[in-house]
Structures are given as structure tokens and as C-alpha cells.
Specification:
- The protein has 266 residues and is an alpha/beta fold.
- The chain is 28% helix and 23% strand.
- The protein has seven helices and eleven strands.
- The protein has an eight-stranded mixed β-sheet, sandwiched between helices. The chain has a three-stranded mixed β-sheet with strand order 4-3-5, with helices on both faces.
- Helix 1 crosses helix 7 and helix 4 packs across helix 6.
Amino acid sequence: MAPQSEAPVAGGAVRWMPPTSLEGTWQMALDELLLDAAVAGGGATRPVLRLYRWSRPTLSLGFHQRRIEPHWWELAREGTIDLVRRPSGGRAVLHAGDLTYALVWPAPGLARLEAYHQACGWLRLAFADLGHPLSFGDRRPAPDGANCFALATAADLVHGDGSKRIGSAQLWRRGHLLQHGSIQLTPPVPLWQRLFGMPPPPLAPLPVGDDELVERLRAAGAACWGELRTLPLTGLEHQAAAERLQRYRVPPDSSSSPELSMPRAT
């Protein structure tokens, strides 16, 4: 059965930002900037939904993730990957051959798990329409697992055979939500193997190309959230994001710091 397409937020237009392909620190800076705008607006702002790609293969680390494998540093130093720190939680995610989404939801007024379920409705709707239905995982996270896609929790979306298509993570700030997610499409097997010592999830190819997938996802977003109004990045937002870039960067020469972290804005 296809998931329900009821809008969790009634009235008004949701901001849709056209897909971009940028370096990882830029993508993280933009997402947290949009969350901070919702916090500053006290819930009066509308939700923001955007899809994006990464201009280079990038390993993003969850905000609370402290386990950073030594060979990840080596891959970063040799220029194979970039390392960035996400403001959201979760485990390490390889961004190469994936499509990332970010949802900023002002004041959802929901418990964390219920927010995951409602925030993922548009994704489930889109994949059901593609003939590849998704359901939520049911496993608890392993205490020492470093790879986000090595298991599927109740925050993740999986196919009927258990293969994980979408991993999501959240950041809550003063009652407002930023939810990140990686939609795996064509994960690069050799790089995945080098990073995690295992192959990527065995995902069936989708019946549409990347551009058509974006359009399907946008249509599902409109069905679940109401009107999506295209509002690109403004000049002021670009400037504000540029001032934040350093906080998400994980420099390759910082491997001597076992407790690597980034400042948490309040």
C-alpha cells in the first residue's frame, strides 16, 4: 500500500530550492543556515525542502561521531575523498552516486520518531510510485558501527529485501527540525569497499534517470507538503553560508585529534 499523501503542514507554500552540486562544507553550511532562519523566525517561517549532490566524493561524519578510521584520513590526504562534519547526527555516509535531501521543518511539535515518519512520507510516496516501495527499518544502531548504511534503524528506509535505500539523521534546535538524508542511487563499489571494508547495499536500479527522479521527488513533496514555491539561494544567504564553512571542514592533518568535533551553535 502506498503511504498516505496528507500534508503534515497545512496552508502556505513550502520553499523549494533548485538542486545544486557544491562542495560538502557549502551544503552543510546552507542547511544549518536555513535551520537557524527557522529558529530566528520563531516558527513563522515555512518549511524548506531541497535536493543536492556533492561536487566531490565526500565522507560526511555525524555530529556526535567520534570513531574516525585511520585509513579515512589517508584517503583524504591523497585527495580521494573530502571529509566534512554534518550538523546532524548519525554515522558516516559516503556521498558519491547518491542524492541528498534536506528538510527544514519549523516547530513540528512531534516526538523524534514520529517526526521521522512524517518527514519521510514524500520519499515513500515517490518510491512507491516508481514501483520500489520502502518501509522503515527496525534495528537498533550498533554501539560501535561507523557506517550509516551497514544497518537500518527505525529512522531509515529499506526495500522489501532489507537493502537500505535512504539513511536519515536529525538536528533539533529550539523545537525546530533539520532532517538530512542520503538517497543511494549508484554507490561506487571500489570506493565503498576501501572506506568500509564491505560492498554497498545491493540496490536495484530505478526505472528513471536522475533528472526524472528529482521531478518525481518534487511532485511527491508537493503531494505531501502542499505547494512548493521555487526560491533559490539569495545573495545574503550565500554570504552568510560562506562565513560558516570552516566549522564543517575536517582537515586531513587533524588526525592526531581523537576527539574531533565541531562547535555547536545554539
